[in-house]
Amino acid sequence: MPDGGPTQRTSSMTHIAWVPERWVEAATGTLVGLAERHPSRSILLFPEPDNERDVLEADVDLRCYVHRGEHREVCSEVIEIHLCGARSSSPASVVEPLLLTDLPVFLRWRGAVGRTDGERELIRVVDRLIIDSSEWPDLEDEYGYVAGLLDEVMVSDIAWARTLPWREALAALWPGVKDVSALRVAGPEADGTLLARWLSTRLGREISLTLEPAGEIELVEADGVPVAPTRRDNESASDLLSEQLDLFGRDGVYEAAVRSLTPASV
Asked: 14, 126, 207, 234 — which has fewest CB within 10 A?
């Protein structure tokens, strides 16, 4: 540091990100926003299956931040690996030697969750899989697939986290909410779907959903009555990911909502 303060190199986890080409800008921006909040060894995997070369291209960087106004720096390792050609089919074998012993391993998967043997093997070596179901092109198919992963790995969904203020607002309507039969949601399809399935599984019966597309949840009505959350979180992508990196247990309520999202029930 300019003032001669100490530099601390520390890691509390291994944070892996699977970043297909269309998600590169978003993923790197989110990593910058995490700053010193989660000192970790970050491994960014950039699959390039269509690359004609079968090679690994890696870059290692040490990124340091002033720790929340203190006179010291905290440094994290960032390893960027481009998996070119056939190398993209075996990511677990590349990552496993880089994992930090006895520390949790988190995997942020951008876009639709991988289904090839190699991608499934990568999922099996981590402690928690972090997704954002609003990034998926086909909710019905993807939720069914993720439901099948719940016995293999703990799963966090950033879309689920975004619904928290609205779930709290609906729960605060108890006991009247137990008679609700329909929700109208203006917001992303994933967020609205999870909100409706949450209420359905909590009440033990089907709740119909009318969805109006929007970039974020702007309105929720229960049987035509507007629901007003007591707070509206204005969190960035980095904030939302940071919250998931603080979680270590299962969310049984979320898992119940996802398991109910079979093709027959969506």
From this structure: 234
Q: What is the CA radius of gyration of the chain?
A: 20
* CA–CA separation, 27 and 44 (whole Å): 9
Buried b or exposed e, range 6-22, using 16+ CB within 10 angstroms: eeeeebebbbbbbbbee
What pTM was estimated for this model as a whole?
Answer: 0.89
CA angle 155, 65, 5 (to 5 degrees): 140
Domain residue spans of the chain: 7-126, 161-234
Report the distance separating Cα 55 and Cα 133, nearest Å.
31
